[in-house]
Write a structure and sequence with these properties.
The chain folds into three domains: 2-91 and 156-197, no CATH class; 245-432, no CATH class; 434-558. It has helices at 5-17, 21-26, 35-39, 50-61, 63-72, 81-87, 99-110, 114-117, 154-175, 177-181, 184-198, 201-214, 249-254, 259-277, 310-324, 328-338, 347-360, 371-384, 391-410, 416-431, 434-469, 477-513, 523-540, 543-558, and strands spanning 120-121, 127-128, 132-138, 144-150, 221-222, 235-239, 244-245, 279-281, 289-291, 297-299, 305-307. The strands form three sheets. Strands 1, 2, 3, 4 and 6 form a five-stranded antiparallel β-sheet that branches. The protein is built from 24 helices and eleven strands. Helix 4 runs antiparallel to helix 5 and helix 4 (50-61) packs parallel to helix 6 (81-87). With 561 residues, it is α+β, with helices and mostly antiparallel strands.
Length: 561
Amino acid sequence: MAADAPRYRRIAEILARNGLGALAAQIGLREHLPEMVRRRLPREDAAADGPSRLRRALEELGPTFVKLGQMLSTRDDLLPAEYTEELRSLRAHTAPVPYAQVADVIERELGAPPHELFAALDEEPLATASIGQAHLGRLHDGSEVVVKVRKPGVSEVVLADLELMRTLASLAAREWETARNVDVVALVAGFDRTMRGELDYRAEAAHAERMRRNLSAAPTVRIPTVHHELTTAEVLTEQRVTGLQIDDVAALDAAGIDRTALATRATRALVRMVLVDGYFHADPHPGNLFVGEDGTITLIDFGMVGQLSESVREEILRLLFALTHGDHDGAVSALVRLAPPRGALDRRRLTRDLENMLEALSAQPLAEVPTARIVEELTAMLRRHHLQLPSDVSSLLRMLVLTESTATVLDPGFHLSTVLTEVIPVALAELLSPEALARRVRTSSLNALRVGGELPERAGRLLDEVEARGVPVRLHPEDLDRAVDRLENTADRLIVGMTMSALLVGIGTVVAAQPGRISLRDPLMLVSGGATALLGTYLAAGAGPARRLGRMVRRGLKGPQ
């Protein structure tokens, strides 16, 4: 940490200059504060104007910290609304780099100077961001493209900042209870992964290709073509998108485009990404959606994507179903599975808070309540109960709010629930398909086998520990037989469960291998079933040692007769 002392001192001074000296101390930077500040340091920074002071400090700290603030602006489950709202206005003060440096990066990455690779490439950037900048170009075949180039030296700065953030997160977790409550170490680790992905344009290219495959059945939604031969970690070349920005109402009307139908099509595509594909564009603001003359929608900029597992999507569907059917206990169960508590949870109080929230929203049908209001109330409730959503689920909530906001610009009478009721049955059919069920059975069964296989070793370690420490065990003689019988019965149930798991793994494998052609007479089914039955028999042989263990425990605890 000594080598980084100047950087820590700079962070501490910037925080103190913006009235956040107590925050600097709470994240482990007290010793780097000026002595005068340390002597006058309050226990907490003044609440007044806190959000704007934090925003200014992050902007002064540079692009990586601005990106961190922008990520935090989406975490309404972690920060009060006044902070997330202020952080949404964060802007990185970045200037474009000279074209000569851009040309150097292109030649180094692609092996030839720009004039050989492109028929034309504008020297003035089309857009500039903290990490890179974009230039319009034309290929030798006449295709118009956008070329994104990583700014020289940015990767080194970002990686150094990320290392510093990880250290600060560890310090903060030791010094500050609030940091521990929000699991700041995991939060920064997730941000680290995201930023490293943004530093590699090949990741963005892969996101675009996957989105194109997922949307192949939706002819009215397009993804720009990536020119992989002109793409590396630091250069991305993709098809130029022309058209109207989706929130340009006057231009859409002039072009004769049906805005109501457009709102539904755009929302359907974005919601389907979430609930059906589990892979979605996490930043669908109007600047990233363009509309062609024929009404087709083109999505751009895949630097931010979210990914939801089948199990998470299932819990989201459970939550939606429970909320719309008044099943408050079911909604709480789904919430807790989505956002596991970090400490003791008062489930009764959480259920009561959920009921109060729904009561407050009941002035109009839930389907007509703006998504932004539901998300605001829900995340505030999660924050009160110290329930923290996974980052991708938090990104999903922000994405839904952005989507409905854009749709209501196009159609003021639009309700997200209209599209949800259309897409949810499709999502359920996907999650309940034979292939999806086979995947889940296989995964769950393998997990059960793993846990069952580890149990004897863990039990042995526990018994060794008991023996080594001489832990006294008190059992009344009349209870002893019942206790050991329960041990043997538990072992029997475990063996049966493991045997069934082995069988289910085989069945799941067959279903996944031959979807739609499942037959008990299929040779593959017979071979797989036979093999898993043998495996189950092998596991069942372990019941004998389990019973012997029970007899040993009985004899040992009763002592010599």
